[in-house]
């Protein structure tokens, strides 16, 4: 990846973060199974972590450089490397011991292409880690999300409500149909399997829940329940308590994009969750995006 | 073979609120070894490769009117299920405290007696040994029988005593853990990453923990800790080195030792702080034969060691270090 000439000089990236818990929260949100390979992509804009499942589900966590208290990027091109997501999160977790709110330093690459982590919040103790990296797969990961029409078809819903709805749909399971219709403006989740369950979000009935709605034509697509579930099931409860909105957009061909926001702001000395509901600079937010491919079985193909 | 005593309020508090829950984490079943002067809870001393723990109380720390007699130099030992013991004690306390413990005016009539008995259990023709608690409340008297093993034979008691004597050796260098709670949450998280923990202790007062697998190396170094026993001066120019290099140099100079133990055992040893010790010290026994943790208890309200209580654990070392 990085040429040998660069190695002897400065590493591709040295950065420091003062809220490891925020990063753990963000990465945990995309941890939907035990063993997941993740690809990290470094650039002058920040770090992107990408995970994927069976060509049908992809998640990206954007950690912009503004989240970091120090961000020194000196690579050419965009270095990419693979790590085990579970191991990375478990490792980061050991850096956020309560009452131990230190700064953590990341460096890539180490002498043996490792990702190096180090926390030195006091002279008398330090925590360090070296994570072995892999060469990532060469296939393009991009899901090529394109808007479905002239106006994007999207809605924004409170994260907790979305999670609750998707959790409830576990009972019918298997396949979930999401329908947006402009008149009356509403979103419908419908599960058919062991039984039928339909959950409606009516825009005018409950504007606290459904905070934004954009749709000029009725669209309807089905998604595999397990992939839909992955988009909300692992969001940490602290993030659900924040209860920002999650934005869902349906693109061309029914590709579903789910976006969440996770605060990576340094917790103030009072309690975190109370404060984080109030205003926080947008720069201290990690963006999380899921892309879910629609199911293309005979029925839906026939519909369109 | 007879044993009969009354648990003091201090003894009840020590066992019920502190030690039994800590010892239960070490393992469900332990030996209770009673001598003329001591009551000792022992884990894994005779058998196996588990973590050894030794909680020793002078009889005055727990009991009054302590009477013991046996043909084996007044020593009795048996195995007991700690969770049953804890449950029996908790249950009997609900009655015992009706009188406000032994602080009531009617002191003599309300005491918590503990004794060894043989009884015929229901549906059985063979009498079985029990450790029995007995007390009374306003309207009721309660007896709780905790089943125990048959008392150990003379040979087994001797073996237990020999193992206990062996386990009293202290490491040459002990370092004090700065903050048990912090160490506990750290190791709790660390144990997701690997199974084998490298523990290095230097005579300068450094404690270095590291898990290393083919995918990750994760470690923490705590420095400038209080040292008991053999010390050495911190070499100059050591400050800017990495934790790994510092430890390696210290080992090369003979100023440090390093062993590998199971992360699970290490975590268990930290859980001993449920017994609310005032300090904890880690040290490596001679020739790296085990990792020892010694807990220190102060006389309440002082900084003086309470010599009537002692607790320490010995963690078995994993052989064949160097390979993961």
Automatic annotation (TrEMBL), chain A:
It comes from Tagetes erecta. It comes from the Eukaryota. One of its GO terms (biological process) is DNA damage checkpoint signaling. Its main location: nucleus. InterPro entries: DNA_clamp_sf, Rad1_Rec1_Rad17. Keywords: DNA damage, DNA repair, Nucleus. Belongs to the rad1 family. This is Uncharacterized protein. GO terms for cellular component: checkpoint clamp complex. It is found in: Nucleus.
UniProtKB/TrEMBL annotation, chain B:
Keywords: Nucleus. It is found in: Nucleus. Its main location: nucleus. It comes from Tagetes erecta (African marigold). Pfam families: Hus1. GO terms for cellular component: checkpoint clamp complex; nucleolus; site of double-strand break. GO terms for biological process: double-strand break repair via homologous recombination; meiotic DNA integrity checkpoint signaling; mitotic DNA replication checkpoint signaling; mitotic intra-S DNA damage checkpoint signaling; nucleotide-excision repair; telomere maintenance. This is Checkpoint protein. It comes from the Eukaryota. PANTHER family: CHECKPOINT PROTEIN (PTHR12900:SF0), MITOTIC AND DNA DAMAGE CHECKPOINT PROTEIN HUS1 (PTHR12900). Belongs to the HUS1 family.
């Amino acid at each position: 990846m990085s040429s040998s000439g660069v190695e002897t000089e400065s590493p591709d990236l040295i950065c420091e973060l003062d809220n490891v818990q925020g990063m753990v929260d963000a990465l945990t949100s995309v941890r939907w199974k035990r063993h997941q390979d993740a690809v990290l992509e470094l650039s002058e804009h920040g770090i992107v972590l990408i995970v994927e499942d069976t060509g049908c589900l992809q998640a990206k966590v954007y950690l912009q450089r503004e989240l970091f208290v120090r961000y020194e990027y000196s690579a050419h091109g965009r270095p990419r490397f693979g790590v085990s997501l579970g191991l990375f999160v478990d490792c980061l977790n050991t850096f956020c011991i309560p009452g131990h709110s230190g700064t953590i330093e990341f460096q890539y690459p180490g002498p043996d292409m490792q990702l190096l982590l180090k926390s030195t919040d006091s002279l008398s103790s330090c925590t360090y880690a070296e994570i072995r990296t892999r060469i990532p797969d060469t296939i393009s990961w991009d899901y090529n999300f394109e808007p479905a029409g002239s106006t994007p078809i999207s809605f924004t819903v409170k994260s907790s409500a979305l999670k609750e709805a998707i959790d409830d749909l576990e009972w019918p399971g298997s396949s979930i149909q999401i329908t947006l219709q402009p008149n009356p403006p509403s979103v419908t989740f419908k599960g058919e399997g062991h039984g039928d369950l339909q959950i409606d979000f009516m825009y005018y009935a409950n504007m606290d829940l459904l905070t934004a709605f954009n749709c000029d034509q009725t669209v309807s697509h089905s998604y595999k329940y397990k992939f839909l579930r992955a988009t909300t099931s692992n969001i940490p409860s602290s993030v659900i308590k924040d209860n920002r909105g999650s934005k869902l957009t349906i693109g061309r061909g029914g590709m579903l994009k789910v976006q969440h926001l996770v605060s990576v702001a340094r917790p103030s000395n009072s309690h975190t969750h109370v404060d984080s509901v109030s205003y926080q600079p947008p720069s201290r937010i990690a963006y999380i995006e899921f892309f879910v491919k629609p199911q293309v079985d005979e029925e839906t193909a026939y519909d369109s | 073979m007879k044993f009969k005593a009354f648990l003091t309020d201090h003894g009840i508090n020590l066992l019920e609120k502190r030690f039994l829950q800590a010892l239960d984490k070490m393992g469900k079943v332990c030996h209770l070894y009673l001598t003329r002067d001591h009551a000792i809870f022992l884990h894994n001393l005779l058998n196996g490769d588990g973590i050894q723990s030794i909680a020793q109380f002078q009889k005055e720390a727990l009991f009054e009117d302590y009477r013991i007699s046996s043909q084996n130099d007044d020593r009795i030992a048996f195995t007991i299920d700690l969770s049953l013991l804890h449950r029996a004690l908790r249950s009997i306390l609900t009655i015992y405290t009706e009188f406000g413990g032994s602080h009531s005016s009617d002191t003599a009539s309300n005491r918590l007696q503990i004794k060894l008995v043989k009884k015929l259990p229901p549906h059985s023709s063979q009498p079985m040994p029990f450790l029995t608690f007995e007390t009374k409340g306003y309207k009721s008297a309660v007896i709780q029988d905790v089943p125990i093993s048959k008392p150990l034979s003379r040979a087994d008691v001797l073996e237990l005593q020999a193992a206990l004597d062996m386990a009293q050796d202290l490491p040459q260098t002990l370092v004090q853990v700065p903050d048990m709670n912090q160490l506990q949450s750290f190791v709790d998280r660390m144990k997701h990453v690997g199974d084998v923990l490298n523990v290095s202790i230097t005579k300068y007062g450094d404690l270095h923990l590291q898990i290393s697998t083919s995918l990750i190396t994760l470690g923490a170094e705590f420095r400038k800790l209080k040292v008991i026993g053999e010390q050495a001066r911190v070499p100059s120019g050591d400050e800017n080195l990495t934790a790994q290099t510092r430890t390696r140099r210290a080992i090369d100079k003979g100023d440090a030792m390093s062993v590998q133990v199971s992360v699970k055992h290490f975590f268990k040893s930290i859980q001993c702080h449920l017994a609310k010790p005032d300090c904890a010290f880690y040290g490596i026994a001679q020739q790296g034969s085990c990792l020892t943790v010694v807990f220190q208890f102060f006389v309440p309200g002082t900084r003086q060691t309470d010599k009537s209580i002692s607790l320490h654990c010995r963690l078995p070392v994993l052989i064949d270090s160097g390979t993961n």
